[in-house]
Amino acid sequence: GDTEGGSDNGGKSAKSGTKDNGGADNDGGEDEGGDTGAADDGELITVGIINNDPNESGYRTANDKDLKATFCEENGFKADFYYSLKNDEQITAAQKFIQDEVDYLLLSAADTAGWDTVLQDAQDAGVRVILFDRTIDADESLYEASIVSDMAKEGQTAVDWLKGQGLSDYKIIHLQGVMGSAAQKGRSQALTDTAASDGWEIVEEQTAEWNAEKAQQIVQSVIDSGKDFNVIYAENDDMAKGAVAALDKANISHGVGKDVIVMGFDCNQWALKELLDGNWNYDGQCNPFQSSYIKDIIDKLENDETLSEKTIIMDEKGFDATTITQEDVDNYGI
Amino acid sequence: MSIVKRRSGELRAPTKMTDTNLLTMITICVFVAMYIFAVLFLKKGFLKPQTFFNILNANAALIILACGMSLVMITGGIDISVGGVTALVSMSCAVYLDHKGGSLPMAVLMAVGIGLAFGLVQGYLVAYLEIQPFIVTLAGMFFARGATTIVYNKPFNVANEDFVKLKATRILIPYMGTYNKRGKYIPAYIEIGVIVAIALAILLFVLLKWAKPGRNFYAVGGNRQSALMLGVNVKRTIFFSHLICGLMAGIGGFVYFMHVGSGSPQHASGAEMNAIASSIIGGTMLTGGVGNIIGTVFGVLSLALIQNIVSSAGLDDAWWTGITVAGMLCIFLVVQSIIIARRKKANAAAAKQ
Amino acid sequence: MQKDSLLEMRGIYKTFPGVKALQNVDFTLKEGEIHALMGENGAGKSTLIKVLTGVHVKDGGEIFVRGRENAVHINSPKQAQALGISTVYQEISLCPNLSVAENIFLARGKGIGVNWRNMNKRADELLKELGINVRGSQQLASCSIAVQQMVAIARAVDMECQVLILDEPTSSLDESEVAKLFVLMRKLKERGVGIIFVTHFLDQVYEVCDKITVLRDGKLVGEYEIEKLPRLQLVSKMLGKELDDMADIKNDSPTFKKNDEKPVYEGEGLCSSEGISPFDFKIHKGEINGFTGLLGSGRSECVRTIFGADKVTGGSVKIDGEPVKITKPRQAMKYGIAYLPEDRKRDGIVGDLSVKDNIILALQIKTGFFRPISKAKALEYANKYIDLLDIKTASVNTPIKSLSGGNQQKVILARWLLTEPKYLILDEPTRGIDVGTKVDIQKLMLKLASEGMSVTFISSETDEMLRTCSRLLVMRDRKLVGELTGDQLNQNTIMATIAGGDTNGEK
Amino acid sequence: MAKNNAQPQKAGIAGLFRHQIMIPIAALLLLVLFNLIADPSFFKITLGNNSDGNPVLSGYLITIIDSGSELAILALGMTLVTAASGGQDISVGAGIAIAGSVLLRVLCGTETSPETLHAPVIVAFLVSCLVAMLFGAFNGSLVAFFKIQPMIATLILFTAGRSIAAWINNNQLPNVNERSFSYYGTYIPGIPIPTPFFIALACFLVTWLLLRFTTLGLYVQSVGINEKTSRLNGLNPELIKLLTYILLGLCVAIAALIKVSRLSTINYSVIAKDIEMDAILAVALGGNALGGGKFSMSSSVLGAYVIQFLTTTLYKFQVKADALPAYKAVVVIILVVMSAPAVREKFSILIKKLRSDKTAAQNS
Ligand SMILES: Nc1ncnc2c1ncn2[C@@H]1O[C@H](COP(=O)(O)OP(=O)(O)OP(=O)(O)O)[C@@H](O)[C@H]1O
Ligand SMILES: Nc1ncnc2c1ncn2[C@@H]1O[C@H](COP(=O)(O)OP(=O)(O)OP(=O)(O)O)[C@@H](O)[C@H]1O
Ligand SMILES: [Mg+2]
Ligand SMILES: [Mg+2]
């Protein structure tokens, strides 16, 4: 781990600036936002929302739906959406929103890096930025708040659970998400650290880029090679699904009390069902419903209240196949 | 005996415009029309000069890549490695500057070097071993993309001081700034990359228009066999087209790097398709022999403008972006094709006179 | 190397896969001499030239050029240019996307800048001097074939060269342009330039040349002074047999006995998108007729309209008296019409396909999508016509594009004969074809007609038409202006009709 | 000049050696040889039982014929398109997303995870075929009637395709729970060889029959080489180009069925990602000129399996998934360089020389 770390668990520790905030000098622009225009009664608050493509995963679809439901005209918002999985396109869109003079810029960045300049521009123009879902690698003063999942914590919860299984030996296939995304960093870090300290064997560590197809191929290849493994740690449900497809083909049993432990993240409804059926063992929650928090923050800012904390961390838990109930599936499935 | 004799045709007025110029004109007109449309019907952002400058800033690298691409396409080839090279350049420079504590000039050299190396190898394979350019450069793209992740597989910001200073340097444009609704004065600016892009575009334009080696590119693209028989060194011309394109990709990669300020394996993904599409929109033909750098520049701007219009047209569902961009592209291409077809007919009729 | 020779080629060998194109060929060009290179189609003339100019790499032999001690190795046309050899190739080799001036000056001269104004000016001067009716700034693609050919010539002449090679430059030129070219050639000759001239027009050879080198089947037959080689002997040297074939074709104009049957084809008020004025046309069973007129008078367009090759915009058609609709080649083929187009490279051959596939193509399309011709059958057809038309090819599987021009033409002829048409249209089938084959084709036509096929024949050489056609339709300015039969079939009447009664001919 | 390496075919063995199919065969042999030397266990195939207790074969080779199937199917259509229109369709990946989305939309209706399917699989498949062929026709008409260069014409769908796919299902990512649906992408109970291989085989056979018992091959080549001539000989070049794109559309739908069935779900933005590049590569590795004209179908299919062989080999040697393209590129370059006519010519001259030296030595 070289550059991450800082920004990822940067929540309440409130120290996020790693070594790269050289270009960003604060001029405290955030205080004077509310004085003109925007908050006039009857007028809609304009927000520009930059998000990843909703069909990236079930998680993202839920996230997008949630945002759309909240930032609608009935609630007093005029929202423009821009979707892209490409960081540079997102940056360009941010510049565009600044030109369009939105009041708020909501941002879920594709990459953690590369955002400081455009956020500085936003600040200079008096556009207030709120990060959601994903942290970025930029100085804290450049945004008002960030509402994110603590990926490192998610990872740690999962790894702790795994530790609790008390296997005689751990032989793990580690399927990573797109390298460099906050979720990948956090969830990988936990496993890598623990594996090193507890002497777990990582049979295979590959990025399947959130992609079920790739995950299937990777696991298939491990099976073909005849290597032994007893845990699949997939950093999202889709990849876990791909891995399981490969296992099924090769008649390797998986799930509660079987040969291979399957772990996923995101809590898709179908994934929780797999847990309920005992086909998978663990699913870590990643809460996509940030919009109400964002709305709170915007309301506060409009009323010139100060924010109590810069980083809000979503409440999340992990589910074990042996304890999960239908109720959980209905409540937490996305 | 033979009685071949012909009606004496009158001297026709010199044909109005070459294919190249015609296509360029179409592009420029469409661009202007779209911009006017945007100003009239979309958010007021389009009235601000900075919106235009932002398009330039964001697309400086693409302009450079597309110019190189046009050159290759004019000679009848294609280079789909440019996006990969861009990613490789930015990642290498980022690692070099940030992890290895390298210096800025060396980083620039490195960027140019990587570009040249790709151009050299691809050019040799295409020109001298006569392998299909699509395959060679497809392999080039695969290689560059893979190599990028081998260099380093995560995105990260570059904190090198010189670089950050360079990246933050903005060239302010006087009298173009505007006040926003909060009463703040926002100066208008362009980035250094834009200057580089414009300079390179002009350079290439001059090369293609006023230098003999430049005309050889057109000759080779128009008819390879004929060009050979007219005494053009076809292989060398093709080689140089790839070399220059590689060089442009290297420089473009660095400009891209300056714009985003980070290294990432995902950088510039799909840039090759954007570059090709821009060139085509700008009037360059994939079949070779026709093309113009000015057209290419406007091609890039048009494509960017389309995306910009779509993003501020208030189309909320994610799928609209892709569908609308494609729709506009489709209309554009069909119009272009109809105009070219009519023109061809006119040409054929002229040949009969 | 002899003192006064500009160029000597010794023992040249060149083999293509399956073809020995050149075997031990010697060739000498002296200062100030116009040297004809003669031979049948596929004899190796173009190959010899391409070896000389570095387009093909020779397999053996030596080339000496004046001013160089040792044998030179010419690997590219550029080197040939540098050695003072400039060339006009058989197939026009210019870049259609560039302007006329650029085509003239491409890859020439020193310096790296392009001075457009200067270049256009010089081009205009040059073109004017040669009497070519275009501007330098015009895009080449918008010029007619003949003009393109003249531009190629202009380029070659304008270069300071000591050797000028002209490979069939005259096949698409009209008389006055040929005359201009000859004046030019003589001028260059006086300056001491050596000229290699390839043509199938014997008249032209005897008009300008000093010497003749004859090739046959890739081998040297000999080099002769022009005075010492009368026509008949030249032809027999080229063909390798004594020739009295010309006499075989009866010299009196063929007569055609009109029978009472309905015409095989009858069209009324035909016109096409290519701007031809509506015309009527009919042909009877076993008749040979032809279109004549100046180049560009619309002969091709007429037959293309008949075949449905261009967009047909009007007119009514009857086949054997039955009204039918012909707007597409497919329909014409269905009614037994076949059409051999004039530009074989563009409209005739399918370059990468084998000779066999090229031969069966039309028949196959006629038989239909679900009834492919079996391999054995295809082979049989191909071999039959290769024998019948004496097509020179390495094998039935050779791609057609590596055949010589004349042989490609024969393959296309074979393609149409194979469909057993009732009515065959031949548009310039003899262009670029050697004398022997020309006669063969004419004989074939007569034979087919006697077997009941109707034939329409277009040729730029009136003699050919007079020898074969019983009826001539005269075109002027894209209009059908006359029809000649019987006694009217002679040069003078034809000329007069073409000129429109005005004896001064074209204004 | 360079584009064309069509050489006169000589009869018999010599002819075979000159035939373009030698290129993928040589590549395949090379890969086999490499694996034999590096680790012969690569070729081990074992018979086991899958989770349902049915017999299945497994091993790297099985993986290759399994995972290479989609590519092989696409290569069939891509070869035709390349031959007829002298360009490539880069929208096949997006097309798979669309076809897959349609398939699931019909199967699942608007539910994300229905208990029972809303329609029989065959109906859904036919609908998706229809849609894919429609999109193929769209590409084809842009190419044929508007004369837009194929790569650019298909760029339109390339840009829009995945969005359209998302739109069809209103951004839902449906799941099929029906077991039998997964048979198309995995195993049919009782048959130990993966189904995709059979599907690919069937497609290949149908294509072979099509080429054998119709004149499609000749028409396509003729149109690809010289459109004008083809028209004068009674063909309708536009129609034939259109036809090839529609056929490719069909291939896309079949590939989509396999892809979707493998996981019983879809992800629009990543399904069949970059498969267009591999499909084009397969055509090129098969020795077909990308500029159109002559083609050899079996070479393309073999080319597709060569690519999968390569991918699987690289996976076996634990090359990182994201670095994999780099190694692939190196191998591809080696392959195409070795098969380049210019290089082969040089080799044959060298061999000739060696041989003549030898005979000279014998004579003396
Ligand atoms: N590129 C090539 N590949 C294979 N064979 C060729 C090639 N070029 C020419 N040939 C063969 O070489 C022989 C000589 O052809 P060449 O073109 O020199 O004839 P030519 O005398 O110019 O005939 P024509 O009067 O018809 O132009 C022919 O049999 C031809 O098939
Ligand atoms: N003035 C001209 N100079 C040179 N080529 C011409 C000229 N006019 C026509 N042509 C060429 O001849 C082709 C056929 O034209 P058209 O049918 O009008 O003439 P044609 O009487 O058949 O003459 P020909 O077949 O001898 O060229 C045209 O497509 C054009 O390329
Ligand atoms: Mg010749
Ligand atoms: Mg004609």
TrEMBL record, chain B:
InterPro entries: ABC_transp_permease
Main subcellular location of this protein, as a coarse class: membrane
Bilayer topology: Multi-pass membrane protein
Residue ranges crossing the lipid bilayer per the database entry: 20-42, 54-74, 104-125, 131-152, 186-208, 238-259, 280-306, 318-341
Source superkingdom: Bacteria
GO cellular component terms listed in the entry, alphabetical order: plasma membrane
Stretch forming the signal peptide: none
Record protein name field: Monosaccharide ABC transporter membrane protein, CUT2 family
Automatic annotation (TrEMBL), chain C:
InterPro entries cross-referenced by the UniProt entry: AAA+_ATPase (IPR003593), ABC_carbohydrate_import_ATPase (IPR050107), ABC_transporter-like_ATP-bd (IPR003439), ABC_transporter-like_CS (IPR017871), P-loop_NTPase (IPR027417)
Pfam families, per the entry: ABC_tran
Predominant subcellular localization, coarse grouping: membrane
Key words, A-Z: ATP-binding, Cell membrane, Membrane, Nucleotide-binding, Repeat, Translocase, Transport
Record-level GO cellular component terms: plasma membrane
PROSITE patterns: ABC_TRANSPORTER_1 (PS00211), ABC_TRANSPORTER_2 (PS50893)
Membrane-topology annotation of the record: Peripheral membrane protein
Annotated ABC transporter domain residues: 7-242, 249-502
PANTHER family membership: CARBOHYDRATE TRANSPORT ATP-BINDING PROTEIN MG119-RELATED, GALACTOFURANOSE TRANSPORTER ATP-BINDING PROTEIN YTFR
Protein name: Monosaccharide ABC transporter ATP-binding protein, CUT2 family
Automatic annotation (TrEMBL), chain D:
Keywords: Cell membrane, Membrane, Sugar transport, Transmembrane, Transmembrane helix, Transport
Domain of life: Bacteria
GO-annotated cellular components: plasma membrane
Keyword Calcium tagged: no
Lineage of source species: Bacteria, Bacillati, Bacillota, Clostridia, Eubacteriales
Compartments reported by the entry: Cell membrane
GO molecular function, one term: transmembrane transporter activity
Protein name: Simple sugar transport system permease protein
Protein topology in the membrane: Multi-pass membrane protein
Pfam families noted in UniProt: BPD_transp_2
CDD domains referenced in this protein's UniProt entry, alphabetically: TM_PBP1_transp_AraH_like (cd06579)
Native species: Ruminococcus albus
Transmembrane spans: 21-38, 90-107, 119-146, 197-219, 239-258, 279-306, 326-343
Keyword rRNA-binding: no
